[in-house]
Write a structure and sequence with these properties.
Enzyme class: lyase
Keywords: Amino-acid biosynthesis, Decarboxylase, Lyase, Lysine biosynthesis, Pyridoxal phosphate
Strand content: 25-35%
Organism: Shewanella submarina
Largest sheet: 9 strands, mixed
CATH architecture of the largest domain: Alpha-Beta Barrel
InterPro entries: Ala_racemase/Decarboxylase_C (IPR009006), DAP_deCOOHase_LysA (IPR002986), De-COase2_CS (IPR022657), De-COase2_N (IPR022644), De-COase2_pyr-phos_BS (IPR022653), Orn/DAP/Arg_de-COase (IPR000183), PLP-binding_barrel (IPR029066)
Structural class: alpha/beta
CATH topology of the largest domain: TIM Barrel
Bound molecules: pyridoxal-5'-phosphate, lysine
Shape: globular
Function: Specifically catalyzes the decarboxylation of meso-diaminopimelate (meso-DAP) to L-lysine.
Number of strands: 21
Oligomer: single chain
Distance between the termini: 59 Å
């Protein structure tokens, strides 16, 4: 069920009118629906059923403390890629024992921070990282729980910038090296081998790449068992796609059902790291039209939101639906929806059929994932407010940045 619907011709988020929210907090703003976040998380959790598992939400998709807290209250685990994300999870009340730490460039400090916090597992991505983690754990007189992230060399069929499971990508350990490295990890005194891990890319809309990756890693698990290395968990990563436009990604039920057939008869705990599938369609980006402008037969709607607030259209040519908050009757025209940033690539959408006037509010859909988390202060634009609705209530979950925050921590020469 969609929680962003028109009721009496005005766009609502759950039971709140978006125009009221915009009037109260100003624009641009990000708006999240608690009910949608919870529904998406439960969809994964229920789909896996009674098989031992952890749903470790990928914090990078949306790391607002209120979002993390809503998920932590459901019992979610978390997939992190930095010490900053770990700190956020802890601040939001997340359980460190349900945290997995991914990423190719963990620093020694981040390793120590995560060891002290008592995380579930490090997803190690290279031989060099393995040796470093063993050293850091040794200095702390601890044993680091690890899995190795294997790069299964499957084509995820997604945008090249968000494909991660091909040999040419920087992520994970090559299949040919995997066995040797597991044996090395098994022999190192300050590491405890727990699992295997993969993550082949993001916004996948087909099941086959996931299934191919699982097949390859299960074969590896069998080889390892013959060598006395017991694997307790299988982390399938994240990557399940969402509908931005006409895509028809598998429902978590079908995704889980297909994967579970591969694990029948095995004593493996499953770990899932969904980010986008939980957060993307739980959020909107709300922006106001500042001016209309016509240039050589082209219509521009210049809005107060920009690429620094929501970079996906500029960075990946990503298409996100743009809809009016209070639709006008009458003729539509094709508009490019552009922001105030001084870059030609600053657009939220191109060639959109709309009937808009200056002052109107527009909502960019599917903006709950990789929206605010990828925002910057480019052009010295303060980062926008974030609001969460919960039924007929709404809460400011991050204040709009103030101008003085733009140069916080900067210093003049004496
Ligand atoms: C290691 C890892 N896990 C999980 C995710 C979450 O991916 P998605 O948002 O596509 O579910 C990512 C990002 O792609 C990732 O790099
Ligand atoms: N930022 C990307 C997804 C990256 C996934 C990171 N592992 C997007 O918006 O589509």
């Amino acid at each position: 069920m969609d929680h962003f619907l028109y009721k009496d011709d005005v766009l609502c988020a759950e039971d709140c009118q978006i125009a009221d929210i915009a009037a109260q907090y100003g624009t641009p703003l990000y708006l999240y629906s608690r009910a949608t976040l919870e529904r998406h998380w439960h969809a994964f959790d229920k789909a896996v059923g009674s098989v031992p598992h952890m749903i470790c939400y990928a914090v990078k998709a949306n790391s607002n403390l209120a979002v993390l807290n809503v998920l932590a209250r459901l019992g979610s685990g978390f997939d992190i890629v930095s010490g900053g994300e770990l700190a956020r999870v802890l601040e939001a009340g997340g359980d460190p024992a349900k945290v997995v730490f991914s990423g190719v460039g963990k620093t020694r400090d981040e390793m120590a921070q995560a060891l002290r916090a008592g995380i579930h597992c490090f997803n190690v991505e290279s031989a060099a990282e393995l040796e470093t983690l063993n050293e850091v754990a040794g200095e702390l007189d601890m044993q680091a729980p690890i899995s190795l992230r294997i790069n299964p060399d499957v084509d995820a069929g997604t945008h090249p910038y968000i494909s991660t499971g091909l040999k040419e990508n920087k992520f994970g350990i090559a299949m040919e090296e995997a066995e040797g490295l597991f044996l090395r990890a098994h022999a190192l005194p300050h590491l405890k081998v727990k699992g295997v891990d993969c993550h082949i890319g993001s916004q996948l809309t087909e099941l086959n790449p996931f299934l191919d990756a699982v097949d390859r890693l299960l074969a590896l698990i069998d080889t390892l068992a013959e060598q006395g290395v017991v694997i307790e968990h299988f982390d399938v990563g994240g990557g399940l796609g969402v509908t931005y436009d006409e895509e028809t990604p598998p429902h978590p039920d079908d995704y889980a059902k297909a994967l579970l057939t591969k694990f029948e008869g095995r004593q493996l705990t499953l770990i899932f790291e969904p980010g986008r599938a939980i957060a993307a369609n739980a959020g909107l980006f709300v922006t106001q039209v500042l001016y209309l402008k016509e240039n050589s037969d082209k219509n521009f709607a210049i809005v107060d939101g920009a690429m620094n607030d929501l970079i996906r259209p500029s960075l990946y040519s990503a298409w996100q639906k743009i809809i009016p908050v209070s639709p006008r009757a009458g003729e539509t025209r094709a508009f490019d929806i552009v922001g105030p940033v001084c870059e030609t690539g600053d657009f939220l959408g191109k060639n959109r059929q709309l009937n808009v006037q200056a002052g109107d509010l527009l909502a960019v859909r599917s903006a709950g994932a990789y929206g605010f988390t990828m925002a910057s202060n480019y052009n010295s634009r303060p980062r926008v407010a974030e609001v969460m609705v919960d039924g007929d209530k709404h809460y400011l979950v991050r204040e709009r940045e103030k101008l003085v925050q733009l140069w916080q921590g900067e210093h003049l020469l004496p």
